[in-house]
Amino acid sequence: MKRELVLALAATLSACSAPAQMPAAQAAEVLNLFSAGRGPANVCSAEGRAQLRGAVRSYSREMNRSGVVWPSAIDDLGGDLTGVEVSVMIAFAAGFVKASDFHSSPQAFLTELAFNAWPEMSSVRMAASDACDEVAALQQASAAFLMESTRYREMASRESSDAERLRRQLVRMQRAHERMQDSAAVLQVRLGAQHALGG
Asked: Which of 14, 29, 59, 155 is most buried, by CB atoms within 10 Å?
């Protein structure tokens, strides 16, 4: 049976306490940790989501004051994305942060990212609240895959790219894709079990 990529869009995940207040420097640190999967608080808790939303708000506001569009892909879908930008935008799609947390307008970009880059994402609209750990794991794996895919496309588009480096990047991309599929399968199993139990 073909495994579909699942990205849960749980209403329960976006229903959290007010975003935390923090300076831009702290926000940048929180976002870097989140992107690396080492956030200061569990994103599946109200506190963790409040921290993440607060970090997005503070950093987005600071970038807006500097005249910088953030995430950069809002301006250019084919732009060079950082790991933080990828993680934040997938977190948006997963419901960890809201459109109102950004000082620019990512909705159109995220819709294009979600349904053009990963058409299978539309297969599941909502996950049970107790599947948040699996959703978070899938978010991290999806972010990693998108980053490796972006790097591969960039390398492949350069005529000067070394063939061996390109091959190694292809392997990294394929491994990231496998991890993403594995995370999606774990979430599917969890949701299937919850459904069978009437949850």
From this structure: 59
